[in-house]
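Q: How would the C-alpha cells look for this protein?
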Amino acid sequence: MSVYLDPDVMTMLADYAARRSQSQSLIAEAAIASFLSPDADERREAAIARRLDQIDRRLSRLERDLGISVETLAVFVRFWLATTPQLPEPAAQAARAKATERYDAFVTALGRRLAKGQTLRQEIPEDIDAAGGAD
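A: Here is the predicted structure in C-alpha cell form.
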C-alpha cells in the first residue's frame, strides 16, 4: 500500500520515529489503528468533555470576579454618595483640581498592585457566608 503524506507531516513522522527509535511504518500503523479503533470516538469525546469542563470552570470564575467587581463598585458609590457633601462653586473648582491629582495617584497605586500580581479576587474567600455578610 502506498500512501502520500504532506511533506510537513512526513517530516514530523520521521522526527518522531527517530526520537523513539522506531520505524516510520510502525508508528504510522499505530496511528492509523488508533484512529480507526472503535473507542477513538469515546476518547475524543472524553477529551472534549474535559475541555468543556475547563471552560465551564473558567466561566464560573469570570462570573464570580465580575460579581465581585460590580458589588465593589456599588458599595463604593453608595459610601461616596452618603459621605460626600455638595460643595459651593468656588470650592468645587478647587476640589475638581485636587480630584485629578488624587485620581492620578489612584491609578499609579492600582498599577503597582497589579504589577505585584496581588488581586482583590485573591483576598475574597470562594464561599462567602450570605447570612454573615454586612451591608
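The chain has five helices and no strands.

Residues 40-83 form the longest helix (44 residues).

Upvote if useful.
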